[in-house]
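Example 3.
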Amino acid sequence: MKRISILGSTGSIGLSTLSVAESFPERFQVIALAAGKNLETAFEQARRWKPRVISIAAEAHAETLSDRLKQAGLSEIEVVYGTAGTIRVATHPEADFVVSAIVGVGGLEATYAAVKAGKTLGIANKECLVAAGELITAEARKHGKPLLPIDSEHNAVHQCLRGGRMNEVERVWLTASGGPFLDTPSSQFHLITVAQALNHPTWKMGKRITIDSATLMNKGFEVIEACRLFELPPASISVLVHPQSTIHSMVEFVDGSILAQFSLTDMRLPILYALTYPERIQSDMRFHVNDLRHLDFRPPDMDKFPCLRLAYEAAEAGGAKTVALNAADEVAVAAFLEGSIHFDEIPGIIEDAVRASNTGALQSIAEVLEADAEARRYTRKRISKTLESRTTSV
Amino acid sequence: MKRISILGSTGSIGLSTLSVAESFPERFQVIALAAGKNLETAFEQARRWKPRVISIAAEAHAETLSDRLKQAGLSEIEVVYGTAGTIRVATHPEADFVVSAIVGVGGLEATYAAVKAGKTLGIANKECLVAAGELITAEARKHGKPLLPIDSEHNAVHQCLRGGRMNEVERVWLTASGGPFLDTPSSQFHLITVAQALNHPTWKMGKRITIDSATLMNKGFEVIEACRLFELPPASISVLVHPQSTIHSMVEFVDGSILAQFSLTDMRLPILYALTYPERIQSDMRFHVNDLRHLDFRPPDMDKFPCLRLAYEAAEAGGAKTVALNAADEVAVAAFLEGSIHFDEIPGIIEDAVRASNTGALQSIAEVLEADAEARRYTRKRISKTLESRTTSV
C-alpha cells in the first residue's frame, strides 16, 4: 500500500491522480490533499477519500470546509489552509509519496518541504524544476529518493533511461507537437488571435500551457526540466518536432542506440508509472499498436520560435535566469490572453526580463521567490511601457 | 578485457564482429576462430588476430592452413577442423564470450557445447533458436548466463526489455520491412523472378535470408526466436510492418507503455551491444535523429504471406515442427533460387513438411539434427513430385 499526498488535488493532475488511485484501491491510500480554490470539489474529495488532513488555499474557505465535514460526520479530518497548510500536506508523516501538482511558484515551498522531509516526489509542477530544480534535485539526492516526472515527455525519458546507465547517455530528445503554428509563416504571427493560439492540435490543457505550446516556450521549459531532472547540460537535450505527439520522447545512448517511448496521450499513464515505479502494473489504457500508421518528424525552427532559444540561453546562464524566464513568460502570456499584447511580442518581452535578471546560484526557495517577484515586476513594467508607447504613437 | 570465440568468423557476422574487435582493441581479445570454407580469409584472420586456435570447416584445408601459419612464424596457433574443431573453438577454456554465427544447423552442436560449457552466448545463428531454442535457453538458464541476440530485431527487444521486468511484458512487437512484395498483389506472386525476390528494400543480406524476407518467413523465424529468447508464448509476439526498418522492434508493457529501439542499420551495433552488455560504450555509428522524417506502419497480411502464419502455427505446436519449418524452408528456397519452383509454391511445400513432422519435445541436439534431416528428405521428395507432376502434365 503506497500512502500518497497530493499537492493540487483539485487541478487537472490532481484529479487524474485520484482517478488512478480509484482504479487501484488495493495499492494506494490517500493520506493528505492540498486543494485549490474549489471548495465544493475539496469537500467532495475529503468525503470520498477521507484523508488525515486536507488543506484549502484560502483561509476564508477553511472554516466552511471544516463545518461541512463535521456535518457529514467527518470531524476527524483535519482542515488546514494556505502555504502552511500545503506544507503540512507535503510533509505528513504517514505519506510516502507526494504528487507535486500545484501550478505556479505557489507550489515551490511545499514541494521543497516534501523532498526535505525525505518523501518520494512525483513532479508535475513545472516551476519546481525550472525555477528551483537545483535545490530540489540536491535534496532528493541527499535522501537517496528518485524524482519521478509526471509529464509525458520526462516520464518517457525516465522510461528510456532504464535502457542504460546515466554515464551512457549521449542525448535526450524531447519531442514537440510543434503547436498550432508549426506551418504558419512567422510574418503572420503578429495577427494570431487568442482563440487561434488556444487551439492546440494534440493535447487539451490549461490556457497558459497551451499558449506556451504555441510559442514553443513550453518545450523550452521542458529542456530546463530535463537538465534538472537528469542532471544533464542543456547542450545534451535536443528538441524534435513530431506533430502526432505519438512518441513522447527518446534517449540516445553513447553506442548509437536510441530508445523511444509512446503510449496513449493520457496523463493517468505517467501518474501510474510514477506511483508504481519501479514496478509496472496492468492498466486498461492500451495504445493500439496495430493502428499505428504514420509518424512525422522535423527539427525545430528556433528563428521562428525564439522562446525555445531563450530557454536554452537561460538554462546555460543559470542562476535566476530560468526563474525570470518562467515568471516573465507567465506575465507575458497573461497579457496576451487579456488582449494587451500581440503573440509575436511575447518573446521580446521575456528576453528583456531574462537579460535584466541575475546569474549566480540561488541558495534558497526564498531567493527563488524573490527573483520570481522581481522578474514579474520588471515584466509588468516592460509591458506597460510597450502599451504606453503604443498609445503615444497613436 | 573480454575474451571471445567466433563461430563463423569468415561469414558476414563474423567479419562484423572482428571489425568491432578491431575498433576496441583494449576491450576484446580474440581467443578462437571457427572459419568456413574460405581458406585465404581464415589464414589472414589467424595472422591478424593470432588466436589460440583456429578451426576450418574442411579437413582438406587444415593441413594447408597449418603449413602456411608455420611459414608465417605462427606455429603456436593450433589448427583444427570440422565439427570437432568448431566445438573446440566454442568451448575454449580461455573464452568468456562465444559469438554463434555459423549459418544453418551446422552451428548447432558447437553453440550448444558453448552454452553447456558456461560461456555467454551472442546469438546470430537463427537455427540455434528456431530448431534448438528450448535446449539452448535451458542450458543458459542453468548457468545463469544471458543469451544476447545479435540481430537487429531481437537486440532491439533486449534493449527495450530493460524498461521493465519480464512479468511486466504485455507484448513484443517485431517490426518487418515487409520485403520487396509488400505492395505486389498476391495474384502476381506466381511470376516473381529470383532477381526480383533478391532485391530487398532495406537490408543487404545473404540469398536465403533475402528470399525469407520476401516471403515473410524470416519474420516468422524471428517470432519463434523471440519466443525462445524471451520465453514468451507465440501469442505474445506480434509483427508490425514498417517499411523504413528504422524502428528495429518494440516492447509493450502491461501498463500500456511501449518502448521502441532504433539505430543505424549496421550489424556492428547489435554485436557491440552484445559484446559489451550490460555496459554501453561510445561508438561512432550515429543515427542522425535530426534527419528523421517519416515512419510508416501497417499490420502484416498473413493471407498474402502465409509463411508468417505457418511460423506461428509451428511455434504453437512445438516439438519438431519448428525444426521442420526451418529445414523445409531452406530446401524450398534453394529450389526457388535454382529455378525449380515458383515463388508462390514455397509456402505450400513448407506447410506439408511441417504437417508431416512430429510434435513432442526434442531431447537432444542429435534428435534435432535427425528431425532436420527427416524434414529435408521429405521436402526434397515433395518438390520432386511437384516437378514430376508438372512434366507429366506437359
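The domain at 2-145 of chain A is CATH 3.40.50.720 (Rossmann fold). Chain A touches chain B through 49 residues (CB under 8 Å).
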